[in-house]
Amino acid sequence: MVKLTFCGGAGMVTGACYLLETDTTKVLVDCGMFQGSRFSELLNHDPFPFDPTTVDVVLLTHAHIDHVGRLPKLVKEGFRGKIYATSPTLDFARALLADAAHVMRSEQKWEGTEPLYEEKDTEAVFPLTIPVAYNEKVPVAPGMTAVFHDAGHILGSSIIEAFVSEKGKERPTKVVFSGDLGNSPTPLLNDTTVIHEADFALIESAYGDRMHESHKETKDMLEDVIEETIAQGGVLLIPSFATERTQELLYELNELVEHGRIPKVPVFIDSPLAIKITEVYKKHPEFYNKKAADLVRSGDNIFQFPGLRFTPTPEDSKAINAVPPPKIIVAGSGMSHGGRILHHEKLYLSDPRTTLLIIGYQAAGSLGRRLLEGAPSVRIIGADIPVRARITRITGYSAHADQRQLLAWVEPMRMSLKKLFVVQGEAEVSSIFAQLVRDKLAVEAVVPKVGDSFELK
Predict the structure, then answer these.
(1) Residues whose CB falls within 8 Å of the CB of residue 410, separated by 6 or more in sequence, listed in order
(2) Which domains does the chain possess?
(3) What global pTM score does this model have?
């Protein structure tokens, strides 16, 4: 028997968590946090639909909190198996989980909520971890081997092939977990690995109903937004995810400044977490694509340029207010769901000279999503703020593959696939993409719900 149970990330974007079972082994792929709305966050406190003490292994596709955020809860409740991931994933996870614990402790102080775990619980995760390299067969459990491939999503992100051996079968059953697939090509990362065959596969579908701009269009749009905001003496606010989006922006801004394509104005990276994550990027140039790696070898500091200032402390952050416009502020969180971006939005969203640039996915219920959908006013840190700023979006900086890229990733597997599970998307978007797969590739594609189990025959 090989059984797959969807414990999160099904019918929703966040909370990725998949249990792959045989008669002798239980392997969890990702253990992510539910994010976006207050309701989603409350789901994190629900009991796991399995006994954590019986799980043998965890395989991690990458370090975003919606893929690793419940690991400390898993360990706190008795998991003592092994956790496999690439080295950048483990380095990112250490910083991201500590930050999540800190945020939850702050929320407990102000809102009276019970934190999911504390910082001591995050540290208990890492003695269980084992770093893996790309493209190597790793015997992760009796009768199961895993291979990690570059997903091109964030540094160290992985597509995981699980090979499950069964008695009486000549070859193992191959189950592929896409994790989050990258929006290739990107400035820093290698392209997403192509998988040519599988018996079963799970594919993310965050952008399963739309297309992104090309990289050239994306860069030109960024240049235009910066020039327009500077010309009217305004503030450009960019809510940005600490991992990958901020580093990609730094790379792009570095090129725009060094080639004289935008005026030199103060640029602030106002996110302690993004600053820590940038140090991890500097630590692992072996995971860059050839162009970025060659630039680093030539002596170019791809994360530094004239006018750039990092503001790690609260005092540094508050000092940004004293710098007159025009200026650019890049701050977390990426969905305006918390973090320092809220203070800047509270201060500047009522100014018509301000531009709020959305460059990442905005989950339903998040403040970023409400702003993107045109809310005339929003409540931020206890105050009702009228929205007079220009709200604009560039989807080409998304770290996720779009509909065309997702379909192209499935296509080489179409002759061998018995079933494709469409996950990690809003239910309607996943259904649209599943239908497209059925129509275009003649592959059986289903959209599971949380709690659904399938026997993989």
Answers:
(1) 201, 203, 417, 420, 437, 441, 443
(2) 3-210+399-455 (3.60.15.10), 215-397 (3.40.50.10890)
(3) 0.90
